[in-house]
Design brief:
The complex is a heterodimer of chains A (318) and B (298). The radius of gyration of chain A is 20 Å and the shape is globular. Chain A contains 13 helices and 4 strands. The longest helix of chain A has 27 residues, at 202-228. Chain A has helices at residues 2-22, 25-50, 58-76, 84-99, 107-126, 155-178, 180-190, 192-197, 202-228, 238-251, 255-271, 275-293, 308-317, and strands spanning 139-140, 145-147, 150-152, 230-231. In chain A, the strands form 2 sheets. A two-stranded antiparallel ribbon of chain A has the order 1-4. Chain A is mostly helical and 318 residues long. Chain A has one domain. With 298 residues, chain B is mainly alpha-helical. Chain B has one domain (2-284): ABC transporter involved in vitamin B12 uptake, BtuC, CATH 1.10.3470. Chain B has helices spanning 2-32, 39-57, 64-90, 98-120, 145-167, 169-179, 181-186, 191-217, 224-239, 244-265, 270-284, and strands at residues 125-126, 135-138, 141-144, 219-220. In chain B, a hairpin with a 2-residue loop joins strand 2 and strand 3 (141-144). In chain B, helix 5 (145-167) crosses helix 6 (169-179). The radius of gyration of chain B is 19 Å and the shape is globular. The chains are: A mainly alpha (318), B mainly alpha (298). At the A-B interface, helix 5, helix 10 and helix 12 of A face helix 4, helix 9 and helix 11 of B.
């Protein structure tokens, strides 16, 4: 297992870096979809897996990033890459504002409220609030990527854009785990009361997790808008949030588990066409079985690197 | 004033459907402290089961007896599915952390919703016209026979459920299990049986709610369960979750709220307003209207 962890990332990196040159355009598009949804699922993992908050509105932040890019590009002529700061900051800010009054709610109530946010968001898009969201049809005809005036129209450019975003997300998550905030989130997920009693401001860290997850999802939204050169409300319905939610829970909130979940959910249906209609059905069973047989997910996360002798000692002490 | 009376009539109709479905949520929550997310999809499934019983078993008969049989058969089928659901998805997790059971409920919801899609297809189906289209025009307010039927039948069901829970020995056992399961066990209540009974009652009431939805709106889709389920759940929270009269009151109030939003603002914003209402309730008064003051922390 240790060897696996040591070599898995470099192998993944090399494979993903040379992969698009081996694929035809259709499969390149599938690979881009995998990268984008992997980023959204990892951002959901920060909120749901790391902080333990039952958020079922991740498609809201994803969609918000996509719409910000689309609106700034089509109505105001900003280049796609220039929209990134706002597409990250606004969803993050929005996540903080939305989360602040509700983070104290217990898991199942939080779930229903976040579903509510997602539904309100889609309704706002469909009703064309402010006349900028394009109503039920959404916005289409976005510009391709451009880098200092050079147009990058090829799909390969979108692929590497998505790949860089995924690497950035993995880097953030890796650093988060080692940071003070990551440890705080870990404690408060394991035992809320104990975390509070050793002086962790649980409220602040929960809101922080919401903001971080929302920002990363917003960034994934920019890539999504770039890939399709269009955005429309149905791509961000709350059933999409249900998907990310179940991917993280079934995957067990670890990076390989989440990537595996995204693969099963979004790439397998492309390989086996019949699986597309069965995937939710299969995922439903996977959720029940995972909760009964492997409550920590199929590929459970391990936290940090605590030497074995320390773990034994604490167990004897307790 | 006409709009007001018309929306009042519509709101009471929608409200009684919400209330029937909300009872399923609130009873399960009362005893198991679990939001049964699969309940909404059970409601959707019952409309499809009713449709199939109508075409395959009853030979498309619409006589009064045939309609009664369709209602009873659908309720019986859904009660069986409810028991299976509890056995497979919830009982193994009764001692587990409660959020595990919530995830299991979401899984069950996906299975039922997509099971409907795999059996009946992804397209909208038209529910049969089981009740004749009769309308009365009372001073500008149009009321249909279906509306009267839904309102009267729902009230009868709700009053009988209330009397059953308040006045009978089994009802006392249900109340005892929802206050303290362990104490109820010590007093000789078979909690497993009570939970099975609650799933039977909740699923059959939900089934009747689902048939009403089919009768009233006519178009039924495989994924409509989430919509009605969430509305009914909000109704249950509004009235105070776990509280049976609360679910009835909450359902009626939410139905009226929706009808008035549709009448005076716009039906395209109804969902948004309903969820804003939910968020406000959860922040201001999480125990709901009839919830006890010393309810657990939400």
């Amino acid at each position: 297992m240790k060897n696996f962890e040591r070599y898995a990332f470099p192998i993944f990196f090399v494979v993903m870096a040379i992969l698009p040159t081996l694929l035809d355009p259709r499969w390149q598009a599938v690979a881009i979809t995998f990268l984008i949804f992997a980023v959204v699922a990892l951002s959901q993992d920060i909120i749901l897996g790391k902080a333990g908050m039952f958020n079922m509105g991740q498609a809201l932040f994803f969609g918000m990033g996509a719409y910000i890019t689309a609106i700034l590009n089509s109505h105001y002529g900003w280049p796609i890459l220039a929209t990134i700061p706002l597409a990250v900051l606004l969803p993050a800010l929005f996540g903080i504002v939305l989360a602040a009054p509700i983070v104290h709610l217990r898991g199942d109530y939080l779930l229903v409220v976040t579903i509510g946010f997602n539904i309100v968001f889609v309704q706002v898009l469909q009703n064309n609030l402010g006349g900028v969201t394009g109503g039920p049809n959404g916005i289409f005809g976005l510009d391709p990527l451009s880098f200092f005036g050079t147009q990058l129209t090829s799909q390969l450019a979108v692929y590497y854009f998505a790949f860089i975003v995924l690497l950035l997300t993995l880097w953030v998550m890796n650093n988060l785990e080692k940071s003070k905030a990551g440890r705080a989130l870990h404690y408060l997920r394991e035992d809320h009361l104990a975390a509070e009693s050793i002086g962790i401001n649980t409220r602040v860290y929960k809101i922080f997790a919401f903001g971080l997850g929302a920002g990363i999802a917003g960034l994934a939204g920019t890539v999504f808008a770039t890939q399709y050169a269009a955005v429309s409300p149905e791509a961000f319905e709350f059933i999409v949030s249900v998907l990310f939610f179940s991917i993280v829970l079934v995957g067990g909130s670890s990076i390989p588990g989440v990537l595996l979940g995204v693969f099963v959910m979004f790439v397998l249906p492309e390989i086996f066409r019949e699986f597309a209609t069965w995937r939710y059905f299969v995922f439903g069973f996977a959720m029940i079985l995972a909760m009964i047989l492997r409550p920590r997910g199929i590929w459970p996360a391990t936290f940090g690197k605590i030497p074995k002798f320390l773990i034994k000692e604490t167990r004897h002490g307790a | 004033m006409d709009i007001f009376l018309q929306q009042l009539a519509n709101g009471l109709t929608i409200g009684s459907m919400f209330a029937l479905v909300a009872l399923g949520y609130t009873m399960v929550y009362g005893v198991m402290k679990l939001i049964n997310f699969a309940h909404g999809d059970m409601v959707a499934a019952s409309a499809f089961v009713g449709l199939t019983i109508y075409t395959q078993v009853m030979g498309q008969a619409t006589s009064l007896i045939a309609v009664v049989v369709i209602f009873l058969l659908t309720a019986a089928v859904m009660a069986c599915i409810g028991i299976i659901l509890e056995r497979v998805a919830y009982r193994p997790l009764r001692e587990a952390p409660r959020l595990s059971a919530v995830v299991s409920a979401l899984g069950a919801s996906l299975i039922i919703q997509n099971g409907i899609m795999l059996i009946w297809g992804p397209r909208m189906k038209i529910f049969p016209e089981l009740v004749p289209q009769v309308y009365w025009d009372i001073g500008g307010v149009v009321i249909s026979l279906i509306q009267v039927l839904i309102l009267v039948l729902s009230l009868i069901l709700m009053v009988s459920l209330y009397l059953f829970v308040e006045k009978t020995r089994i009802g006392a056992a249900i109340r005892a299990s929802s206050i303290d399961q362990d104490a109820a066990k010590l007093m000789g209540v078979n909690v497993n049986r009570i939970i099975a009974l609650i799933f039977i009652i909740g699923s059959s009431l939900g089934a009747i709610g689902g048939l009403f939805i089919g009768l009233y709106y006519r178009g039924i889709t495989f994924n409509m369960g989430w919509q009605y389920g969430l509305y009914a759940f909000i109704a249950a929270i509004l009235g105070g979750i776990g509280n049976i009269p609360g679910a009835m009151l909450g359902g009626m109030l939410l139905g009226l709220f929706n009808a008035f939003i549709a009448g005076y603002v716009s039906s395209t914003w109804a969902d948004a307003f309903t969820f804003i209402l939910l968020i406000v309730i959860l922040i201001v008064r999480p125990t709901g209207l009839l919830g006890e003051r010393v309810a657990e922390k939400v």
